[in-house]
Sequence to fold (446 residues):
Amino acid sequence: MLKSTFRGLALGAAASLSLSAGPAFGWSLEEAAKPYAGTTVDVVFLLRPGYEAAEQMLPEFEEATGIKINIIKHPYENALGEQVRDFVAGGDLDIALIDLVWIGNFAENEWIVPLDKFTSDPALADPALDIDDFFPLVLNAFGAWNGTVYGLPFDNYSGLLFYNSCMLKDAGFDGPPKTWAELKDVYGPALTKDGKYAFALQSKRNETQSADSFARMLWPFGGSFLDDKFKSNLLSAESQAGLQFRQDLMQYMPEGIVAYDHAETVNALAQGDVAMITEWSAFYSTLTSPETSTLGDCFGVAPEPTGPAGRKPALGGFSLAVASQADADEQAAAYLFIQWVTSKANAKRYLELGGVPARQSVYKLPGVAEEYQYVEALVESWQEGVPEFRPRFAEWPEITEIVQEWGTKIMLGDVSIEEGAAELGKRMEAVLEDAGYYAGDKPLAQ
Fold:
């Protein structure tokens, strides 16, 4: 289904681009931007390496175009609320920064403009865009909703297994575990001793609990949040097996793991306190920098382990889309920036500065796989992920609060796995019923 959906999206975009390529012969960013020189484009950026990389590249764009990119920085936890308030009020933002799980909300509220408005305009569309160069899974998951492409992938992640090869070697292992069962049953006991732990699973009660902890254990075991009728699937044998596995694995994690966010988990590996973590590819630069990590040559990276249902790694990241509230000049200028910062031509530099581009071509360049250890694992993961790793519909912000509450209660042992999953499922279904999914008012799209 995913492949056929993307093929349709890609063909539509390709058709638009082919229409623009003829009259746009000799197209240049400088010429395209001339009518918009002096325009200011407002966009939210996060406090993460991929955004710092883009910010370092900005002077080149601004000098070439005369367009000013005004960056408003927020931690992830504030980014959705700040943008929603701006769009509801008809505010100043000209570009939407869209998390994987916000795309349905932004699209259904018509806060973002379909991409083909710009790719079909020969004055704006760079013939070198090559939309087929984006990983199909990533473009579909981050940039598209219900058959329409809105945004281009930016700051995209896959879950990877980062590990301390020296700790593994000292425990008698010549490489990381291939399966989740092996990680728990074989590596767990051997590596948890003397104040050190085999594994850390970031599980803090925020989106980290939902995405990095709860969902991560559903999919590899064959579970999911919802069945094909949008009813809770959390009491299925497969979902229960995944949640039980998480509980069993906790004996090989640091105490207080339920309070660990990304910073604590990455630091635990970087300082040699744990042997393995599953984390986003975006943290590669943190773990390889001598300023933030003691790992040095002991650092290793692999795809996430497989479960009974396969690998099904965590999927996260963002797209950039043009805001519908922007005026015509701001929309054009915003698109030119999005097209430029996600371009094939800029992918190598973005990578070198600490970003993770979603362009297939950059990972095939000579020397890239050798220089960046995570490339092989990342490319493999982006073949096997599921776009609905967290449902992408408009109701996710409400549902994730429920997952965070009851997922945390399960981990703490305040309720049993079955009781917690039942209550979570009941509350999740109530949200979906109020939204009109069961009455047929909304399509069962996630």
User: Anything to note?
Assistant: Residues 2-21 form the longest helix (20 residues). The CA atoms of residues 220 and 307 lie 4 Å apart. Confidence is low (pLDDT under 50) at residues 1-24. The chain has two domains: 2-156+316-384, 158-314+387-435.
